[in-house]
Amino acid sequence: MTDKKQGVLLAATGPGEPHAAFTIPAEPMFETRTGDLALPRNGKKPRNIVVILTDDHRYDAMGFMGTQDFIETPQLDRLAREGAHFRNAFVTTALCSPSRATIFTGLYAHQHKVVDNNHAIAPGLVFFPEYLQAAGYETAFIGKWHMGLEGDDPQPGFNRWISFKGQGDYWPNGDGLNVDGERIEQDGYLTDVLNDFAMDWLESRDREKPFMLFLAHKAVHAEFYPAPRHEGKFSDGTFRYPETMAAGAPGRPMWVENQRNSWHGVDFAYHANLDIGDYYKRYMETFLAVDEGIGRIMAHLEERGELDDTLILYMGDNGFMFGEHGLIDKRTAYEESMRIPMLARCPALFGAGVQVDQVVANLDVAPWLLGVAGLEAPDWMEGQDVAPLLRGEDVPWRDWLLYEYYWERNFPQTPTVHAIREDRWKYIHFHGVWDIDELYDLQEDPLESNNLIFSPGHEAIAERLNAKLFDALEETGGLQIPLPRDAGERNVLRDAGGPGLAPFPEELLRMLAR
User: Fold this and answer.
1) Residue from 162, 196, 166, 193 nearest 180 by CA
2) Directed axis angle between helix 276-303 and helix 74-82, to 10°?
């Protein structure tokens, strides 16, 4: 732990309550690269590892979940059937770059400092593949890196590197790909190109070493462009619109209601007249090429006799809202934003049809995969090894999760958000906006449609969760709001003919005696 200095918390604990003083760490609370990347062995056989990461894939957008009748994801269904489904998997920040940095470091965004999509990881911070490489693994990164705005230079920890600038494009845009530091043209539809590179590397790798392939797709990030062979496949499907899409929900914060008429709202989505149902169908059509690629990788490993000894981990980098609470996109602390799909298969390590009910987070990926590689995770990582959960062991596990998102000038619709999510209760706290916080009973109200923050009888719950939130931030060095330099385009328009401003929250109104 670093030395601490006193600071003042810039938010009160409730209407009319005074500000409170908390300790603030003077320095970052993580260790950086020292040159020695050797970790202690855990005595277990190192396994091959394949990580397949997608962008903006909802936790329930999988065929076996039955959320929409027309969805087809046969390879994901197979992973769930033959392996494990993490039913309560979450990210600690629902935004591409912060989430990816957390996956690679096992740290919160306020620790690794990648708090938006425009800033790179600080020099010296260690990525878990560096430890694998030092332990004798052959490693490859193929796909979307997206930390540092436009950067696609090779990063530490990878023997093979194939990436592209920023978000990339489904079809060639002239920027091409960075292949081990050399730029080449993008030849075709990006998902297929990345799948082909993954197959080529698997074919050519050193068979004498264990390997780790990290395949990070652009898909299914908007705009959604399916491969031509998949376009229109779900056009005749019937989309079930979310129950919370209607305007005027009681207890909904003013900023959420106002966001309906914005880049990230259903009334002016992406500054266009967009039908959410049609958009979702294209989203799932765009995913089909990813699913096919998973099947190709599994078929290759099976042919080589390596499939059952290889951990295949599939996950999304954050969720995505399709009309819930009148919103699209992610960033918020609502379930559809912060929950992700997570599936794993490795018969050598755990059985088939496993369901993990505990809350697992992107924080846990780095320590878990280090354990799969036969290594002890460093104690500075915030995550936990999920292997005991997959084996059905009764082990101490988290009963709450910290969530954070920091306001972006280029997408000002969403304020800074912090949240504590327990199995039953979720408390959402906003910074820098004159509005109300949120409290939900997830057991009685899984759709988060009844805000209990001012409901009689819930005062003690809100107070307890507020204290837990700031305790967690204090203990992990998160009591400082970052102020990054302005970067990226701004999406700040409203539809002049659309809905007007929401009324000020009634709970904060008082009548002055006259």
Assistant:
1) 162
2) 60
